[in-house]
Design a protein that fits this description.
The structure is a homodimer. Chain A is mainly α. Chain A is built from 6 helices and 3 strands. In chain A, helix 1 packs across helix 2. Chain A is globular and about 65 Å long. The structure holds a DNA duplex.
DNA sequence: CGGTATCCCGGCCGATACTG
DNA sequence: CAGTATCGGCCGGGATACCG
């Protein structure tokens, strides 16, 4: 299993070059960067436009400096976010989505908005589940 | 901040009832169930059709019994996956997506396939980043 | 087969302090 | 403002054993 082909024999996507269902495939890590707890929210926040570090921190409610910094590094490394630092004093750094990042985030936001939209149904399901379980 | 409205003042989605950018909003947890490390792969695997526990375990390369069990419980609680147990011996249990689960998974797969598709570009970006960083 | 229970370790992650 | 450094808890998650 090298890095340019990670075929998983047991999935229907068996002959795709980069298969997330295969444990060793680098696409799985990238997917986790994108869908991860902070990665998804960071990308989502940046979709509206470029933001500075602390603006981002306020938008993504609950993220710590450390995790935001780490998240931004991963996303920048993946080529999804572009970092632009201006050597002024005080320093000003803007983060914005790359074209690839925008394409990824469009799909991500489609999922996010759908989940937000169906939350009433989900909450109902959760209550039914909990009641049925609590009865046991 | 109750459970039927979680407005985040600082995002553009400020007046949406269920806002993932708000820390306390239940939609964030549900999104994590869907996009999480094992949740996303489990949903993706089930999109092709219903599967039994150990079939699922083999498809989702690297998942442990414990995590698969836990993941399936979360997804079932959210109303995304339906569990059907047949009281035979040996027992047979099938998992399948609910209609809501299918809708969610369609959007999820759109993202997954896009990431898989663009992996060559991502790998290139990563190498550039690593080279530039290694040079420092 | 289809799980649950228990143990336990590594690393995710928050808090705090510090730097340019 | 925009981070990095360091410490520590806690919990995700793997390994193993066990049950119906």
């Amino acid at each position: 299993m090298d890095e340019t082909s990670c075929t998983a024999e047991l999935t229907a996507d068996a002959d795709l070059p980069f298969n997330v269902f295969s444990k060793a495939c680098p696409s799985r890590r990238t997917l986790e960067d994108v869908t991860g707890r902070w990665g998804s929210l960071t990308l989502g926040a940046l979709y509206e436009g470029s933001l500075r570090f602390n603006e981002l921190r306020r938008r993504v409610d609950g993220v710590s400096e450390k995790m935001l910094s780490q998240t931004l590094h991963s996303l920048e490394r993946d080529g999804l976010v572009h970092r632009e630092a201006q050597p002024t004093n005080p320093p000003r750094v803007d983060y914005e989505l790359s074209p690839l990042g925008r394409d990824v985030t469009e799909r991500l936001l489609s999922l996010i908005h759908f989940v937000e939209d169906r939350m009433p149904t989900v909450l109902e399901a959760q209550q039914s589940y909990d009641v049925a379980r609590g009865a046991l």
